[in-house]
Each structure stands twice: as C-alpha cells, then as structure tokens.
Amino acid sequence: MAAPALAQGDTAAWPSRPIRYIVPFPPGGPTDVISRQIAEAMREDLGQPVVIENVGGANGTLGEGRITRAAPDGYTIGLGNTGTHTINPSLYPDLPYDAVAGFTPISLITEYANILLVNADLPVRDLKELLALSRARPLNYASAGIGSSNHLSTELLRSRTGLVAEHIPYKGSAAALLDLTSGRIAMMFDVLSTALPAIDGKKARAIATSGAQRHPLLPDVPAIGETVPGFEFKGWMAVFGPAGLPQPIRDRLNQSIAHALKLPAVAARLTQQGYEPRSSTPAELARRIEADGRLWGEVIRNAGIRPE
Length: 308
Prior knowledge:
This protein is of the alpha/beta class. 43% of the residues lie in helices and 20% in strands. The radius of gyration is 20 Å and the shape is globular.
C-alpha cells in the first residue's frame, strides 16, 4: 500500500521533530563512525536531533529493508554503500529490498579507494612483481567474506590481469588483516582506515591503490591504473530516504549533507581516516548506482560468485 503524499504545509514545517538515521551495520565500524559525524553536523544545520539507529545483519539487508518500509516523510533516512546498492542486488536472488525503486537517492557523503596489501615478507614491491609471483607459485588472498567489496575488488583485478590466487573468505576484514600480517595470507584489498596501522607498523606493504590517482595519504604507492591502463574503482557511502520522499525535503537534506561535508572539522576527520568527502546531487548518485551495479554485476556473473 502506497504511503500518503504529504501536503505542502507538512513539507514546509519539516523538520519539527528528531530524524532517524539508520546505519545498516553494527556500531564502531567506518559506516557508523562516518554517519555519526555527518549526523551531528546535520543536527546543527537542521535544528533537530539526527539520531543514529544501528540495524546490523545480513550484509546490510536488514537495515536497508527498514529504510524502504519507512514513511516517506523525511523523518527516516539511512546509509547505503557500494555493497548494499550495487553488489547485493546481483549477489542475492531474494534481496528484501529494491536498491533502485525502494529508495530516494539524497547524496553521496564519501568515496574511498581500496588499498592492495601484501604480507611484509612477500618478496614483491609492486603490482608487476605480484603478478609474476602469482604465476610462479601458489598465492592466496583474503576478504571480509564472499561478495564483500574486497573480495570483488580482487576478482576484478584477476579478470583484468590474470592474477592467480585462491580466495580465503573470513568473517570480517579484521580477522583477514590479522592473518595477512601474520603471514598466513599473501594479499588482500582493504580500506585505508583499517589498513594504515599495519602499513605504518611495517606488518603489511601497500603496493597499489584502486583509484584513478595515487592516494594523498600514500603518495609513493602507485594507482593500479599506472600498471593496468583504465583500471579504476572507488567505493562510496551515501544517504537515502524511502521511495516517494517529497522533493522539497529531499533537496533540504541534500543541502544539509553538502553543508556538513564543507565544515573543516568534518572534512579533516574524513580525510585523516582515508576517506574523501564527496557530496552529489540525487541524480548523480542514481547514475553512480547504475554504473557500479553494471560493473559488479558483471564481476559476480563472470566469476560465478554465490552467497555463503
């Protein structure tokens, strides 16, 4: 049953009470930490509390489903990311939400490159040496789980380069990174926010980044595209509302997010964590979902990936 449309007077009075911001992952991770920074800045801008509600489980599907079932009145918004909106639709045949029709795109909040890491004792210094070693002897690579962003990042690299490596899925990046640094795993992709302590401690070596340019916090580490022309991808996080969100409310939320990302304190915290502050128009976010959905859908189909 469709939710009733809001009258013009209702949208003009918005917001008149707290806004719920659903994070479809447990507390403490990057999605939660970044969302809390954005929510606090939005509170100051909108004049109402923006309250984080963590709804973890099932690779984000539980929380995303809750967003789609909310009334489109501007009092429930939530986080979506590369996984929930461009990977899950191709990975799960019975996804409990429609990643396009079930949401109103509001704005990107950040982009991030994935960092290709190798164990510090592995005798490679760059991507060319890693590719050569993988053809000479068996290698393995870790991920946070089947269908995770770092799993598909490696599968994309394999499809473009002929990298030879066996996938070892873990339950989360922390456990995978621990085995990488201890020598049980040869390589993995990870976000810089969690990989940096291992890099700084010289327990892992960063040999490439997935963005089009080198990462500003790792200026000596080449982009993969320097070795594999045209190779580029970035993950992202974004804010969505349920389908049918009135345009005046959508636009006001978009403005508030853009305002938050321009605050020097917010931008500095994101940058220090390895993330790039990045707002967008709703239309730009919709196009990003479409393009990345095609990319990861092709990777999933070609590699024959099935959920755990």
